[in-house]
Design goal:
Helix content of chain A: 25-40%
Largest sheet of chain B: 2 strands, antiparallel
Helix content of chain B: 10-25%
Oligomer: heterodimer
Radius of gyration of chain A: 19 Å
Strand content of chain B: 15-25%
Radius of gyration of chain B: 12 Å
Number of strands of chain A: 11
Structural class of chain B: alpha+beta
Distance between the termini of chain B: 6 Å
Number of helices of chain B: 2
CATH topology of chain B: Alpha-Beta Plaits
Number of domains of chain B: 1
Order of helices and strands of chain A: HHHHHHEHEHEHEHEEHEEHEEHE
Shape of chain A: globular
Strand order of the largest sheet of chain B: 1-4
Number of strands of chain B: 4
Number of helices of chain A: 13
Largest sheet of chain A: 7 strands, mixed
Distance between the termini of chain A: 10 Å
Order of helices and strands of chain B: EHEEHE
Largest interface: A-B, 26 and 23 residues
Structural class of chain A: alpha+beta
Strand order of the largest sheet of chain A: 4-2-3-6-5-1-7
Strand content of chain A: 15-25%
């Protein structure tokens, strides 16, 4: 269980129905951020820019890093989830709408409609860009398609633990991933609750072109060249589960993070 | 450091090649001047927003049709 789960609930935070309740919006700060995120530009360009500036400040940026990292959980950030959890989240939430992904729009001027929003987002948004209301069955179909394409899924919250959207991201475009890897704010994209494990008896890497390594967006896998099989570094694995779908031999499985000694407590 | 001469740049809607070719996503298409939330901005420009992560591969310089990007190592 990650920090949000152990602090607020006993389930995974994004699977707890209480977190989806409208009462969560009584928190004023949370409501103002939800409004900003729903309306697009402002949040991504002005509010989150200050974290980049802080990270680039020579001395203060380094000293205050742990403190700034803690601040991120009161903003709009996320955690990697598996396909199964994403489908469960779609069942739990309502008022689903699909937007063009804001990160892709900003970084590559690309209009891919792959940002699932729910809860208060539909009513708060008033931007003139396109928005599509989609029912659950169609949404699940699309999520599976994105996952098959090789996009990792993450559950985004506003002021944890209030889930507002499911992103299907790519490492280059995802602004959350940028903050984690390039500006060193681990809180902005937490690792998932699972870790991928390779069964060394089943993995016959050299006969399948290492399709799992091609799909890993986090560079957590490498090849043991002596025996021609795949090794997963548990410290780098984010538990998105994309490698599991690529394996034709069924050699990769997802395990609970807290039960794997090499990855325990790493978020 | 990447620098874009925005007076020459064609903009993301007409061209946007540098944004697509960049391997780390340095560029961002941002509204010009002041913008208010909830109002769709009219005028955009491409800015090297995340230039802290640029590794100067020079792909954007090669791909730019009007040669408005300069790279300083």
């Amino acid at each position: 269980m990650c920090e949000f789960c152990s602090k607020h609930t006993r389930k995974k935070w994004f699977l707890d129905p209480h977190n989806y309740a409208e009462e969560m919006l009584k928190n004023r700060r949370r409501k103002s951020i939800v409004q900003k995120v729903a309306q697009g530009w402002d949040y991504y360009l002005r509010d989150s820019k200050k974290y980049v500036d802080w990270a680039n400040t020579p001395i203060i940026g380094k000293l205050a890093k742990p403190f700034l990292n803690e601040l991120v959980k009161y903003e709009h950030a996320g955690q990697i989830i598996t396909l199964k959890d994403a489908l469960a989240m779609i069942d739990l939430s309502d008022n689903h709408v699909v937007f063009p992904c804001a990160c892709r729009k900003l970084i590559s001027n690309d209009d891919k409609m792959c940002c699932i929003n729910f809860g208060p987002m539909r009513d708060l948004t008033n931007r003139e860009t396109k928005m599509e209301e989609v029912d659950r069955a169609e949404l699940k179909y699309r999520v599976k398609e994105w996952y098959a394409e090789g996009l990792f899924l993450d559950a985004m919250y506003v002021a944890a633990p209030f889930p507002v959207s499911i992103c299907s991201c790519d490492r280059k475009y995802c602004i959350s991933a940028k903050y984690r890897f390039d500006f060193n704010y681990p809180m902005s994209l937490l690792k998932g609750h699972e870790v991928a494990i390779v069964n060394p008896f089943k993995c016959k890497g050299d006969s399948c072109n290492f399709e799992c390594i091609v799909r890993c967006p986090f560079g957590a896998m490498y090849v043991d060249k002596t025996y021609g099989r795949v090794v997963i570094d548990p410290k780098r694995c984010f538990g998105c589960g994309l490698c599991v779908t690529a394996c034709t031999k069924g050699a990769i499985t997802l395990e609970d993070r807290q039960k794997v000694p090499g990855a325990k407590g790493l978020w | 450091m990447v620098k874009i001469d925005n007076s020459k740049c064609l903009g993301a809607d007409k061209c946007g090649k540098c944004m697509k070719i960049c391997p780390v996503g340095v560029f961002m298409n941002v509204p010009v001047g002041k913008f208010r939330s909830g109002v769709e901005p009219e005028c955009f420009e491409i800015v090297p927003y995340y230039d802290a992560v640029c590794y100067a591969c020079g792909a954007c310089v090669k791909v730019c049709p009007v040669k408005c990007i300069t790279l300083q190592k």
